[in-house]
Amino acid sequence: QVQLQQWGAGLLKPSETLSLTCAVYGGSFSDYYWTWIRQPPGKGLEWIGEINHSGSANYNPSLKSRVTISVDTSKKQFSLHLNSVTAADTAVYYCARDFQQLYPDYWYFDLWGRGTLVTVSS
Amino acid sequence: DIQMTQSPSSLSASVGDRVTITCRASQSISRNLNWYQQKPGKGPELLIYAASSLQSGVPSRFSGSGSGTDFTLTITSLQPEDFATYYCQQTYSTFRTFGQGTKLEIK
Question: Hey, which residues 45-104 in chain B have their CB within 8 Å of chain A?
Answer without folding.
Answer: 45-46, 49-50, 53, 55, 87, 89, 91, 94-101
